[in-house]
Sequence to fold (573 residues):
Amino acid sequence: MLPIPPTQRGLPEEVRPVVKRALLVDPSAVIGVFTSPRVEEFRNKVRSASPSIRYGLGLGIAWLSVLLRLLLNPYWGGSVPLITLYPAVVLAAWLGGFGPGVVCTLASAATASYLFFGPLSSFRVANPGEVATLIVFAGIGLLMSGIIEMLAKANDRLKDLAEKLAIEVEERTRSNETLRTVQQIVDTTIPALGLDDLLRDLLTSVRIALKSDTATVLLLQEDGVHLEPVASAGLREELEEKVAVRLGTGVSGRIALSESGLIIDDLSQVDVASIFLRKRVTSLAGVPLRTGKRLVGVMHVACILRRSFTADDLMILRLVADRVAVAVERARLQEGEHRARTASDAANQAKDRFLAIVSHDLRSPLQSILSAVGVLQSMNLPEEAGGFISRIERNTLIETRLVQDLFDVARISTGKLTLNLQTTKLGSLVEAALESVKPQFDAKNLDVQWTREGPERSLRVDPDRVQQIMTNLLTNAEKFNSSGGWIKIHLDERDSSYVELTVSDSGIGIAPELLPTLFIPFRQADTPQRRFGLGLGLVIVKSLVELHGGTVQVQSAGPGKGSTFTVKLPVVL
Fold:
């Protein structure tokens, strides 16, 4: 025979099956009953009642539990006298709170001592074991009342948190929907390049998203005080009437000066500048377009029939407006940049055409002058006339070189200069350039030092153009050098990937702030003695070096400390 469980010991035989079935009840089912909406509603009503009602409920539950125990006397007799009192304490504490639970515990203990413990009909309990039973019951009752009260408060806090969480989830969901709407609107507009296309696509998306009859953008004009409609979707009469609205007047003017926009349910109650808005529209919502604190314009939506726009509608407009204002500014800047670039390109093309025409038209008469000089020099003329002819020849050669520079710059600018590439050594080209400028160097008594190191390397270059690079660098060094100065030319061919040519001089030097301007056409450094020329020699050097895939750099310690130009050209591998 199986042993009797401890929870059933002392029970009459006929009662034990009932207790056993009770112990097999699923606790979750009991919990489900206590947490059902109707029971929760009843509990909340009890808890919100006055203390007298709640404490009276505790007493009533205690006496009902005692009455139930008396009714079970024929079955249980004197066994387990407190078996109905424990659930009563739990019920009283759960419904009324800690206080009613305590009242129920004490009332139940007192009543049990009077009815179930000897001597009967007396509150005095003679048996020490029964006294201990009552004390344990009272302690357990107080403990259960405290635990149930704590659980009830925790449950209330959980409910509050659940409600707050539900509200937050709802707000987040609404916010996400708003952002999704804004993103759908902006995604269709931001990529647009032209301002007109951008605004047309934007307003169509806004009107659909907010279910309005019309949507309009007014932009602030150059005078900074008037707004003018520039784009509209839906009803387009406002755009067609082209009414300029002054800031602070009319609906759009008031929206422009507002902090976060306006909602107007009935336009007939306010001052309206636009005839279209006054006659065709009933309700309107609008926001200012701003980049930072700077006003760009106004965007508004409107309905023919009366409609109460919501704060969410206004928030969508504000979010869209923030991005659209930036897009409008960017489109304006792009259009301005495009106009400036177009004007600049046109001016450069005109300049290049002018240089090409001038250089071409001047070459023929200069060649004629040189030819005439050659004829005169072959004649037996007086010595004084020969001096004049030499000066004419020298100045004509200078002008011819300037015209040739103009011609080269024009061809480089238009991309018409081509290279006749050949495989050659750089040393011979340097020597040829030195020979061409020797008369100028000798006239100034300049000390020329030409050095090289490393094995000779083969270059794939245009020999005439590379010699022109060397000649221009040497001429530049001579031009800004004083009599008795020095010029050093060094060719370094030790690296197998490139050769490096350095031209240094003891000339007037270059101020640091002027270094970036040396390779700009028609720019010359301001010096005490203005040198002849157009400032094109170094420009041609840089262009020709880069056409060969090389680089050119300039260094100077400052005025009076000379300068150094370094050219690097790639080696044929």
